[in-house]
Amino acid sequence: MVRAWIRILICMGIALMLIGFVVTKEITLLVAPKMVWFVGFSIFVLMVFSLVQIWQLKGKELHRLGFSSYLLVLFPIFLFLFAPPKVLDASVANKKGVHYSKPNSQQEAEISPSDDPYAEEFAALKKLNIIKITDSNYGDVLATIQIHPKELSGKQIQVKGFVYKDDTTGKNQFIAGRYLIVCCVADAEVAGYLVNLEHQKPLPENKWVEVTGKLKTTVGQDGTVEPIIFQSKIQMITAPKDPYVYFN
Amino acid sequence: MIRFFRSIYIELTGSIVLLAFILFTVNGVTWLSSIFDITRGLQFVQGGNVRNFSTIFFSIFVEGLPFILLGILVSSFIHVYVKEDMVWRILPRNPFLAIPMVACLGLFLPICECGIVPVAKRLIQKGFPAYIAFTFLLATPVINPVTIFSTYLAFGDQWQMVYTRVLFAAGIAILMGILFFFVYGKKPADAILKTDGSKTNHDCCDHDHDHSHHSHEHKQKDAHEHHKHEQDDKVIHALHHGVFEFISTGKYFVLGAIIAALFQTFIGVSGISHLSTADWLTMLLVMGVAFGISVCSSADAFIAASFRNFLPTSSIVAFLVFGPMVDLKNISMMLGSFRPRVVALFFFGTTLITFSSILAIM
Fold first, then answer.
1. Does residue B306 belong to any structural domain of this protein?
2. Which of A22, A95, A120, A169 is best to mutate for the B interface (most B CBs within 10 A)?
3. pLDDT at position B142, please?
4. How many beta-carbon pairs under 8 angstroms link A with B?
5. Is B273–A97 a contact, with Cβ atoms under 8 angstroms apart?
6. pLDDT digit string (tens) for B233-265?
7. Which of A19, A53, A75 sits opposite B243 (nearest CB)?
8. In chain A, what are the domain boundaries?
9. What pLDDT is recorded for position B211?
């Protein structure tokens, strides 16, 4: 009987927690918007489970479950009470993997114009005077620039992101990055643009900035052509409401 | 009076719970925030890494949960509706025919690696031989439409990586199926399944629903309604069973997610980004990372694609093939369902075959 009540507590507790995530929109800190329907499915099933458990309050114990099982399944609820999730920032970037506007040497050699998946995007970008990178075109533009660094060199470009540095970035350089998410934050990685600072003090890590500058190329240590933004204007901004960008 | 309440018990509790949920959705957040102010104000939980851990843990948990629940529902309904003697009507008796067939089953029954363990366990309980269940468990997370499509997208719309991934996964699953056939071919389910769970299972779940008293009481009611009542009972029974399955699988899922989140917070992919030594060593480390981060098989292709800059192709294939088959949360859930010896055979067999076959062919 007590165990049945604990099972009800678990199913309802997790369902309520998920509803909480959805209502407060904290869910976008965890999974991509397209996955929210699946969260709805979880909520529905857990509600049905807790109802069935209420109906079967005096039913037999179908499995013998130890105390530790219940404790572990309650763990998410405790964690939610004490240490709720937050926005991922630069502090875990190197653990999650960073990939910035450095092209893939392999890719460059292999792709012929006919099977370049970003040919359309490239044609569109070429016509623009200033490339403005938004939340929705973030990944596509980055990929296009990686494939065609030379052709797009000289364009004005504007991008938002947080400041990230590691041992591959030079003294006057930083990466303006965003977390790029496919399904959930567990698969997030930093995707960003290498920015070269001109006549400016180094920026503190993790601050959000909007960079405007000229896209140029440099030759990296391994001989590949790297796109790089030469900054002309940097503006400190507040973190956007949804700090992540999503891969469609 | 009591009888009246009993007869509307289901409707009554149903509406109360529904009402509570709606009330919570509207007001709950404000009620709860006063509690949160106390619990979340504590100093020791405010460290950066604790919060990073929490974020990654919840993302794995929230992302995996629907698929676990789906797996449990499928498993519970197999439990109630599939009869033991149906097994050989579906499958050819010859294992060398059956194993490749099962390896392709995921194309029609796409279940990702989160939901697959409860289903595989149930198949064994239903009398399917171990080699069938484990081939299914290994092949399905990779050989299914969702994974195939996302791999295609991640690798710049090229089919080559998709072929490589699918062929390796199928080959490894079939080889492991044959291995399981030789080791556990004719042994009963008890040799595979963990004892405590399965034993109580047999005692309590195989009981037939005895509805004879119903027919005495309601003789006047027609047979059709009686039949319908029994059907309802079966559904309720399957769902009630699902609750238990949820706790017992959920325990290992949570444990796996905790370890995977710790791994991501403290080690992550930085463990492999500075490597330039021997290919085989890189590959082994990449497999370790694939094991540790436990990312969903429909998303891991995108992570693998980002490794292209600094990893050889063999390592990327290893990541793509090994990750969905063997990862932390998966092994954790398997330890809850199968005997340790079986899990060990599964783990070392798959690791060895993956490692040596990719090293030999790529």
1. yes
2. A95
3. 92
4. 240
5. yes
6. 788 888 888 898 888 888 888 888 888 888 888
7. A53
8. 2-82, 90-246
9. 39
Per-residue pLDDT, B72: 87
Closest residue in A to B294 (Cα–Cα): A186
Residue among B28, B57, B63 minimizing CB distance to A183: B63
B306/A102 CB distance under 8 A: no
CB-based contact A131:A158 (threshold 8 Å): yes
**Confidence band for B157, pLDDT divided at 50, 70 and 90:** low
Residue B204 has pLDDT above 60, yes or no: no
Q: How far apart are CA B223 and CA B111, in angstroms?
A: 38
A70 contacts: CB under 8 Å, gap ≥ 6: A3, A6, A7, A10, B247
Other C-beta atoms within 10 Å of B315: how many? 27
Q: How far apart are CA B184 and CA B189, in angstroms?
A: 9
Query: How close does chain A come to B209, measured CA to CA in Å?
Result: 13
User: Does B349 have pLDDT greater than 90?
Assistant: yes
Please give the average per-residue pLDDT across B186-210, as a whole number: 58
Closest CA to B49 of A12, A88, A199, A49: A88
The B residues from 137 to 166 touching A (CB cutoff 8 Å) are 150, 156-158
Do residues B113 and B324 make contact, with C-beta atoms less than 8 angstroms apart?
A: yes
Burial of B323 by CB count in 10 Å (0-12 exposed, 13-18 middle, 19+ buried)?
buried
* A213: helix, strand or coil: strand
- Full domain range(s) for residue B121: 50-206+234-361
Within an 8 Å CB–CB cutoff, is residue B55 touching chain A?
Answer: yes
Q: Give the bridge partners for A213, in sequence order.
A: A157, A231
CATH number attached to the domain at A90-246: 2.40.50.140
Position B334 pLDDT exceeds 60: yes
Asked if the structure places residue B147 within a domain, the reply is yes
CA distances from A101 to A27, A175, B63, B148 (A): 29, 9, 29, 27
In a domain, B10, yes or no: no
> Is any Cβ of chain A less than 8 angstroms from the Cβ of B280?
no
Residue B6 contacts A where some CB pair is shorter than 8 Å: no
Predicted confidence band at B355 (pLDDT cuts at 50, 70, 90)?
A: very high
pLDDT tens profile A202-228:
788 888 999 888 888 877 666 666 778
- Where chain A has pLDDT below 70, the residues are 99-117, 220-225, 248
Partners of residue A14 in chain B, C-beta under 8 Å: 65
Q: Which amino acid is at B96?
A: F
The domain tally of chain B equals: 1
